[in-house]
């Protein structure tokens, strides 16, 4: 709990503030959704946790959504406006 609550949160928000210092908010905002994913990856890599299929599925949905928003935002916003 201490590891995930302190270490991974500090790393996640540290990366977030670094991205904010280099990019405008609309570009940086989708990366905020990667904080829970990075916490899970840290738990897998450093604590040998085994994520459930639900966690893997949810993380893949988040990463796919971020990729859609960052790679081709015009297509994403056209789909939303329909």
- The Cα radius of gyration reads 15 Å
The largest sheet is: none
Topology pattern, helix = H, strand = E: HHHHH
Count of beta strands: 0
Range of helix content: over 70%
The helix-and-strand class reads: mainly alpha
**Anisotropy-based shape:** flat
- Overall mean pLDDT stands at 78
Helix count, per DSSP?
5
Percent range for β-strand residues: under 5%
How far apart lie the N and C ends? 43 Å
Low-confidence stretches: none
SSE layout:
Elements: H1 2-22, H2 25-28, H3 34-47, H4 53-71, H5 73-81
Please tell me about this protein's structure:
- The protein is mainly alpha-helical and 82 residues long.
- 82% of the residues lie in helices and 0% in strands.
- Helix 1 packs across helix 3 (34-47), helix 3 (34-47) packs across helix 4 (53-71) and helix 4 packs across helix 5 (73-81).
- The longest helix is centred in the first third of the chain and has 21 residues, at 2-22.
- It is flat.
